[in-house]
Amino acid sequence: MAHRIFYGVAGEGLGHASRVLSLIGHLPDCEIHVFTFGKAYDFFKSLDYPHLHRIDGLMFAYCNGVVNYRKTLSNAVNYYFSGLTQNLDYIEQQAEELQPALFVTDFEPSVIRAAHLMGQPVLSIDNQHKFVDCRAPSLPASLQLYAMMTSPTVRTMVPSPTHSVVATFHADRLEAIHSDVTLTGGILRQEVESHPVTNEGFILTYLRHSVAEQILSALAGCGREVRVYGASPEQRLMYRGQFRFFDLSPDFVHDLASCDRVIAPAGNQLISECRYFQKPILAIPEPGQYEQAINAHFAEEIGLGTSCEVSELTTEILNTFISRFSCRSNRIPNGVHDVIRVIRTYLPNVFGVESYGDSGEDRIMKLGNHFLDDPPLKMA
Fold it and tell me: Domain for residue 329, yes or no?
């Protein structure tokens, strides 16, 4: 009988979903039940993934393309008093029926709390725990301050995992400060690891709403073929000529492996894949996303790319990147193999408790009011 794993996945963007899809491909003997929401849910749904569960989730709120932290905090409070309780009820019901052998979370707050209430070990596999479990000596003072201010938020979202795996493209720039921490490179799908690398000369861009218009406008004068993922229907009609538009799909990996270079937001997963393929990236942090500012800093430090704020992006900056920048970063191994070793270490644990009969409200109180102690998404 296959081991069952309950896996909570943050639904903001596709980076979290891509990491989990990578692990699923390397665990053929495991039945992985994915609990998620937002874009991640839509992504797994589009793949007809058979063990998919929709739960309520915590999302960033945006205003004019910029993260609105006041509204985000309000959403978090509402989530604490309703969505989290409903999630715990549902996860408990599924656990009694399916008897999972292990709980894992990728920055999703419900599954880890359910595991704690059931007295079960739980693994955290993400890149956010670098703010809790690691030192980054080369970060400039302003970003060091942000990292310190983010630490309570990460602890609130994912409290007290049994073991943390920090998987990021800049793991070689971090130092673990706890023994129950594994540092490794980005988690890549088998399709990425085995895909041949070519250069067909085109520019690849992956868009998020907050930076899409500025990137497309700057690219309009670059004189190169541009393949675009994530554009809105309106943008597809407005931008013609050298632009070719594609829906978001796992086929993105082919264009990433065969492009000349990448212009995109500074997400950890995309930069991890760029480093593996040795594709230069112009990393553009989304406004208010300070974690992406840190990613952009490390992309520059390792020689993989350059960066600029979206408000400063011009055709001139973009053309300089296209014509003059070459990748100076080394390639690092796929971190998925380290992660699989950690997961298999915990799989022999036997799942089983006599009763999970508390109400959702009682379970919230048992969790120590983590959300009330450290309000979620308290950012710099």
Answer: no
**Does 183 lie in the same domain as 74?**
yes
Q: How far apart are CA 262 and CA 207, in angstroms?
A: 11
Contact by Cβ (8 Å): 17, 39: yes
Question: What does the pLDDT read at residue 63?
Answer: 63
Distance CA 187, CA 25 (A): 11
Using DSSP bridges, classify how beta strands 62-63 and 52-54 pair: parallel, antiparallel or unpaired: unpaired
Task: State the total domains in the chain.
Answer: 2
- Alpha carbons 299 and 170: distance in angstroms, whole number: 8
Q: What is the 3-state secondary structure (H, E, C) of 177-217?
A: CCCCEEEECCCCCHHHHHCCCCCCCCEEEECCCCCHHHHHH
Displacement of CA 91 from its chain's centroid (Å): 22
Nearest in space to 161 (alpha carbons), one of 110, 104, 213, 206: 104
- Express each pLDDT in 108-124 by its tens digit: 999 999 999 999 999 99
- For residue 42, give the CATH number of its domain: 3.40.50.2000
Measured over the CA atoms of residue 92, residue 98, residue 99 and residue 105, the dihedral's sign is negative
Helices and strands, counts by H and E, the chain: 17, 17
pTM: 0.81
Q: Rounded to an integer, what is the distance from CA 156 to the centroid of its chain?
A: 17
